[in-house]
Amino acid sequence: QLQLVESGGGLVQPGGSLRLSCAASGFTLDSYAIGWFRQAPGKEREGVSCISSSGDRIKYLDSVKGRFTISRDNVKNTVYLQMNGLKPEDTAVYYCAADPFTVRGMCHLDTAYLYWGQGTQVTVSL
Questions:
Q1: Shortest CA distance to 98 belongs to which of 16, 20, 17, 5?
Q2: How far lies 78's CA from each of 22, 41, 75, 91, in Å?
Q3: If DSSP codes are grouped into helix, strand and coil, which group holds residue 63?
Q4: Pairing of strands 10-12, 120-124
Q5: What Å distances lie between residue 43 and 32, 48, 54, 91, CA to CA?
Q6: Which strands form 18-25's sheet, in the order they lie side by side?
Q7: Which 8-state DSSP code applies to residue 45?
Q8: pLDDT at 101 exceeding the cut of 90
Q9: Are 91 and 42 within 8 A, CB to CB?
Q10: Considering Cα of 88, then 82, then 96, then 48, what sign does the dihedral take?
C-alpha cells in the first residue's frame, strides 16, 4: 500500500522553528517529485515548496523564501521541510505529496500530485 506520512508539526511561538518529515512506505521516493502544501481554515490549499526527484530543482512560495528549506534523503525515503522564523500566518495543516509524472529534474507548486499524506498541524502562536 502506497502511503505518505507527515510528522513534526506542533505548536511553536513566533520566530520558532519546526522540521516536518514526509516518510514514504510501499514505494521509493527517488522517482517522484515531492511537494509540501498547506491549508489554513477557510483558505485554499497552496504550494509551499517542491523538490525534483533528482533534488536539483527546488521551488518556494514567495512568502517562505529565506525561511523554509526543503531537502530529501532518498536513503531514508524521506523528505523534510525545515521551517525557521515561523509567523502566525504560517499556521495551517501541512501536507506532503508525491508526483510520479513530473519530468525528471522538474517540480511544481500546483496541487496536481497523485499521492497525498494525511497532514500535520502547524500552529504558530504566543
A1: 5
A2: 5, 27, 8, 23
A3: helix
A4: parallel
A5: 27, 14, 31, 11
A6: 3-7, 18-25, 78-83, 68-73
A7: -
A8: no
A9: no
A10: positive
Each residue's pLDDT tens digit, 51-85: 999 889 999 999 999 999 999 998 999 999 999 99
Nearest Cα to 92, choosing from 50, 120, 51, 62?
120
Sign of CA dihedral 100, 4, 23, 9: positive
Interior angle at CA 82, CA 2 and CA 68, nearest 5: 115
Q: Residue 87 corresponds to which amino acid?
A: K
Cα 20 to its chain centre, rounded Å, is 7
Looking at residue 95, its amino acid is Y
Distances 102 to 36, 37, 50, 109 between C-alpha atoms, Å: 15, 17, 11, 11
